[in-house]
Fold this protein.
Amino acid sequence: MNNEIAAIYADGWGRLVATMIRFTGGDWGLAEESAQDAFAQALRTWPSAGLPDQPLAWLTTTARRRAIDVARRAAVERDRLPQVAALPVGTDDAEIPDDRLELVFTCCHPGLSHEAQVALTLRCVAGLSTAEIARAFLVSEKTMGQRIFRAKQRIRHAGIPFRVPPPHLLPERLSAVLHVLYLLFNEGYSGDPRLCREAVRLGRVLVALMPDEPEAMGALALMLLQDARRPARQDGAGDLVVLADQDRSRWEPDQIAEGADLCERALRRGRAGPFQLQAAIAACHATAPDLAGTDWAQIAGLYGELRKVAPGPVVELNRAVAVSMTAAGPAAALRLVDAIEGLHDYHLFHATRADLLLRTGQDPAEALDDAIRLAPTEAERRLLIGRRAAARRTGPRTGPPSRPPAAG
Amino acid sequence: MKYLMLVCVDPEFTPGADDGAPDVDDWAGEMDGRGIRLMGDRTRPASAATTVRVRNREVLVTDGPYIETKDVIAGFDVLDCDDLDQAIEVAARHPMAWNGVIELRPVWPWNEE
């Protein structure tokens, strides 16, 4: 029974919150509170009374009743609620509208800060508790609670609309939504893995709700392909393992197949965007038997496409890494890296340079020192220190450096 | 929903290659016609401002602006929009969004929490 309720929660929470936002005329606080009450009541009564035939309709009716009670007591909303309360109440799950897209787009509106977008998406769409979100972002529950409260208040006060943006705004806004998901994913990639799962799950919801948007498919494909490599990314001691040294038999084959297929289907639409191209690059890596058997020329070509649609120094850096593995070789790549501006505070810039210096028979010590100094996590610092020791011992080696989680 | 649109000068702004800012009269004409712009004008510089306080029932008048910063507010408009998206669209088409900064302040009606 508890598993069944959990499954209904996973799918139903966002829908219920969205429906209640509409029902309360945009009172996000009341919407969330009544949704939470409805699930609490379900947890109390369903185990003994059994699952209702139409659980979503049951939850919606319960949440509505609760919202009306609260609003009546508050009296403040009296002039507004009676008219919306007249909306028809569905008794069939199929009649309950699915406004989750409206919800996602509103949570990721550019009028909200990135921090607020991420927190709100996790709370209102994914249904994580404030305490869970606080833990994942290493802040106190109180801080996270305030962040979410302020974001909900801002939506109302600033006049952020609850809707899927009209066509002329959609490309820009969809890209904002996908960035929030990807931010979430990356946060989980180096921290709490639950965030990765939630990002992938929300990605699936988005693809199901917007089947004609290849960039949504691309973002989901990219997350699936990167997540597939997770089991091989750390060794027993928790140290990072670079791509060259990863045990590819530990990668998740089903997830790779799904991601690669999704990416291919997206690209066939002929509207390649940054997420699709990054997914295609990730697919090249994920389907290669080993480093030498990787199609580096194709990867370099894909980075060439990526720099056209999403130019930036990190793309240049990754392109250089790919070029170093093609016939052009590390010397050509080093020239590309040395021409990059604006990445001198980025540890992987120096780590990449160090690698290329080593592979062209030069001393990487200084570049490695810079990389170590700038490494953002302890795991990455340890990896680079290990590499510095190895460089002192053995001299030149071949193979690309560790790749950033964002493959572009 | 009503917004006070503060039209501000950006002291950091240096004119770049990206010209083509819309014309302010065209903007005002269109927004008036659509019923979005309820009123609006330029404001005289801070040197023309007067600050008023009443302390111990005495009216204290000071010449100059309340906030002693660089002269930033150059004008204002009151907009009546469907939502923030529309207000952003309207603000983005004002020439001072191209050469300065525009701040949108939602109006807080007295009968709302």
